[in-house]
Amino acid sequence: MIRVLIADDQPLVRAGLAALMRAEPGIEVVGVAADGAEALAMALDTVPDVACLDIRMPGRNGIEVARELCAPDADPQVPVLVLTTFDLDDYVFGALEAGVSGFLLKDSEPDDIIHAVRQVAAGHGTIDQTLTRRVLREFVHRRRFQPVTGRRAEELLTPREHEILLLLAQGMSNDDIAHTLVVELSTVKSHLARILPKLGVTSRLQAVVWAYQNHVVAVPSPSS
User: Which keywords describe this protein according to UniProt (predicted)?
Assistant: First the structure.
């Protein structure tokens, strides 16, 4: 059972998301919050598998809450899926830098939202496809949130870890990577658990952005 916390300052959105989640088999809504402070308190109390957070909320916004829930030393550490009506770059950047596991626009199809929740609960990152290329290009040229350079990472990562990072940057899930490399799923998870701290990042999404930013993988062109 995937335990989900929902936080949004709009009553209709909260009710709609809660109804959507509750209608899905294998998903349980453990809390519904109207602002960031309430969301943080509920998350610490219920420790959900996924916290679905809006960005703009009274008091503490979703990015501030995500920073506390996703920090490497957070106890408990809760995976965050940001659901927002805003696709402004600064919000996307802020969410990724906070260590969220996913970023999705609220006008996404219901099935896509449910899929994103399941992906985040399974430890897979997800980001709205309409934002991916722009975000990667902007991060490469404007943002620096990781302390480990590409050259230094070549020294830190084993050949297998480097191979897994490349596949991760191509958008593969853990299952896809395991199938491609013909290894056990647990092996992939173990490698990923070692890769993130070596790169100085806290989430799969940050690892993917790091790979593009440090030219481990080519940045998609605007026309591709």
Answer: DNA-binding, Phosphoprotein, Transcription, Transcription regulation
Q: Name the helix (H) or strand (E) containing 59.
A: none
| pTM reported for the whole predicted model | 0.70
Contact 178, 185 (CB under 8 A): yes
For the chain (length 224 residues), average pLDDT per consecutive 10? 96 94 96 95 96 90 90 86 73 77 85 90 70 58 54 78 87 85 91 86 78 69 50
- Sign of the CA dihedral running 137, 141, 143, 146: positive
CB 206 within 8 A of CB 146: yes
CATH architecture of 2-127: 3-Layer(aba) Sandwich (3.40)
The C-alpha atoms of residue 126 and residue 49 are separated, in whole angstroms, by: 15
